[in-house]
Amino acid sequence: MIHAAPLTGEYFIAGERRGSGEVFHAYDPACGASIDDIGFFCSSEQDVADACAAAEAAAIPYADLPRETRAAFLDAIAANIEALGDALIERASRESGLPVARITGERGRTRGQLRLFASEVRDGQWLRLRIDHADPARTPPKPELRLRMVPLGPVAVFGASNFPLAFSTAGGDTASALAAGCPVVVKGHPAHPGTSELIAGAIVRAATDTGVPAGVFSLLSGTGNALGAALVADPRIQAVGFTGSRGGGEALMKIAAARTQPIPVYAEMSAINPVILLPEALAARGKALAAGYIGSLTLGSGQFCTNPGLVLAIESAALDAFLAEAGQLVEAQAPQTMLTAGIHAAYEKGSAALAATPEVRTIARGVHPTGPHEGRTALFSVTGADWLANAELQHEVFGAASIVVRCADRAELLAVLSALEGQLTATLHMDEADIDDARALLPVLERRVGRILANGWPTGVEVTHAVNHGGPYPATSDGRTSSVGTLAIDRFLRPVAYQDLPAALLPPELREGGQPGVLSRIDGKWTI
Amino acid sequence: MIHAAPLTGEYFIAGERRGSGEVFHAYDPACGASIDDIGFFCSSEQDVADACAAAEAAAIPYADLPRETRAAFLDAIAANIEALGDALIERASRESGLPVARITGERGRTRGQLRLFASEVRDGQWLRLRIDHADPARTPPKPELRLRMVPLGPVAVFGASNFPLAFSTAGGDTASALAAGCPVVVKGHPAHPGTSELIAGAIVRAATDTGVPAGVFSLLSGTGNALGAALVADPRIQAVGFTGSRGGGEALMKIAAARTQPIPVYAEMSAINPVILLPEALAARGKALAAGYIGSLTLGSGQFCTNPGLVLAIESAALDAFLAEAGQLVEAQAPQTMLTAGIHAAYEKGSAALAATPEVRTIARGVHPTGPHEGRTALFSVTGADWLANAELQHEVFGAASIVVRCADRAELLAVLSALEGQLTATLHMDEADIDDARALLPVLERRVGRILANGWPTGVEVTHAVNHGGPYPATSDGRTSSVGTLAIDRFLRPVAYQDLPAALLPPELREGGQPGVLSRIDGKWTI
């Protein structure tokens, strides 16, 4: 059992702790005050260059390790995170304002993700092995071709404030990039520097213990945008993983596109996740839907990418009753501490702007906050015609704010859906008699969203094979990919074909008979 | 048998011929004169909007057609192209300056590609079907998730001058986008407008005959860049396929990145395709290597993306002999007509600039041209140190110009390879005794290129499953993908997950037991 080492405020370059000079402090949003136990050192541009140079130097050795070593590395990270014990939970909870129970659950998810990717590395299907045998008798002679996926190279990962464990230092982006064979340079989120340091220590120990080159992982630390900008601009970085605001994601996309060699950016940015209450379901169980809705909306103070920020229904007495019920539930909602002072301020500004919009009706607000950075739940309604006339109304307000759009009829509901930007999810609440309505909406939803749910709530994303946590722009910067589940590994791979290469030079998986247990396509036929 | 209809100079919007006002003329590069038999109408920005609106309207109906219909459509295009007979061959040869034999071969490849993608549509593996069953007993309950790939939506395809059939109106980009279920709007290359019109007629007839919505295909026609720029900027276009110059590809990337909704651009742009002559192979068979080299270099007047523009070898008497032999072969090379006046002028400028570079030695030039746009083969050499000191020397000169880099030793050869930008291919010429040298170079090549060949020549790309015609920037704009072979279909797809959706609403392939013969991943296990 490895216990958490005391925090030093240092960051990590290729396994070595480093830090001197300028520091910043962690912040406890529940108290509204800095955590003064330690200062966290700010990484410099030289640190960025050093981390990238180490990552580049490690890229080929790491990619060439046996798959089993890479899998063992991921498993060891998971075990080391577990071994950090309560010190990790307490620190992450204090830095994020998220309850201990939520952080404990998130730690389980983080370990589960790492182990899922370890299992995926062993499975090897992501190699996409393909072999086409030669045909020397053909005119012209057909060459032998063998193909596999190889890692892109060093990946920059940005920690996310709303998932200090599951989408930060050893979160989904890091796990999937390491699984793909890419070294990772993390830019830790300044909202949880102590959490990042603890997790980085767990990764560094896992690398040492499993014989993985130290350059495979670095953690940079600091406030402001210059550090991340320098990281994305570094010519050795080959891809970027980011979860955060649309503004942040778009800034990284601009930097990546302006490089001499542009690189892919996987930014999970902005969604309002429409929930459609179809007429029969609304009439049959409006009260239960209201309870489910407000429960999903207020989970974690609404700070989820999949938070239901938009509800659509057709005008009816049942909709009035639903709104009244939802309003009562909102009024009873206790305020919850938000992640950072900045997120809280943006939420206040966004919800106040909605409340001040003439055509928007405030249905209810939650209990008035007393703590320094508590978010007050906000429920609004607007007619379909007014929503369609004001594009501002589909901008995400990150937090527990949501708008119910009262559509005049089915045509207006369809018009609202058709006017939506790309989304992570859409949800249909439906009964048996709603099925034709649902069927008519599905093709429109498939064009616009990454995950379609029936009779559930979008918060809560299952980490598995058949999940997609992605969606057309601006839900993500690259709707061809998922940042959750085993599909995420594909983001960091590209194909290489080998033509007529002597067997002695082929990677082992591409030699004749070298594919035991790995899905492969041989002369066009799939075999396992 | 459908014969080629007489040319009218019209373009096609959603199956309808259209054209009035301004015209341009095709050009016969062998004669150096316009082909005055007909004027080709220039599409307007309104035509762009109309084509995109029709494509958007067709997107959902086309995606929802049975896979068999989509496959039959691709097969019918192939058959209709065949039925165009000699009229197509003659027109394409006249407009491109490429010999009849080459165009005939290219027609075979074009038909083969269409049929390969038809077969791929039937195979269905690109759907990437995944099912994770529910587990209501788990805490929290595990939802059911089902995932498939869906088409991105309308795709803009730019015809390529160097492949008037295989990478133009019904070429690889069009075939793979249509296979993925995406409507296509082609911007025809102005170097072969008659060829484009003939092929477009074949596509339109195939759509009619197989019951595919007319909006699935449009052909826009015109000169200058404004038409293509408007097409890429149109908000309904969801991806771009392009084969051409680096400048052209980068211009499209900029337009795509500046959209409100940025979209993927698949531009196949620029490569010099290093060929490495390892010492033993060079000593053993330098004469044969010289013949293979000059044959590959001058094929099609050097106008291939995979043309060997860079040869690397270590200083030796064998290298001197190789250069002497290659030089003699070059001097005997008859000039060949290049594709367009612009390409010929750029080739003249590029090869003259190389010849005028002090550290570059001109080994040989081909026979002096007599025709108006004939390219004169050019062979240069430079030392490794001089090559490393001048980044200009790795810029592609499109045509039959190539540089042999004389490296002082293995370290300098590795340094040259390490300084290379991304490439489509790299080739190793090696004997048994070269195997350790080759092994040392492979990891460096894997980081930089898309296809690695041994003892062959990079021109000639097999259209199959295990091929990759792609590579890191600037070989292509997106090194994660291939523009040739069955992998190409993935460029136009994105995942959608369905959570707890009633079976009646699921796409047929995702229903329980609905995957006969289609590769699928069920609860993590692959099955066929």
TrEMBL record, chains A, B:
Domain of life of the native organism: Bacteria
Regions annotated as coiled coil: none
Any matching Pfam family: Aldedh
PANTHER family from the UniProt entry: ALDEHYDE DEHYDROGENASE-RELATED, SUCCINATE-SEMIALDEHYDE DEHYDROGENASE, MITOCHONDRIAL
Organism this protein belongs to: Blastomonas fulva
SUPFAM superfamilies: ALDH-like
Alphabetical keyword list: Oxidoreductase
Every Aldehyde dehydrogenase domain range: 22-471
Record-given protein name: Aldehyde dehydrogenase (NADP(+))
InterPro entries, alphabetized: Ald_DH/histidinol_DH (IPR016161), Ald_DH_C (IPR016163), Ald_DH_N (IPR016162), Aldehyde_DH_dom (IPR015590), Aldehyde_DH_Superfamily (IPR050740), ALDH_KGSADH (IPR044151)
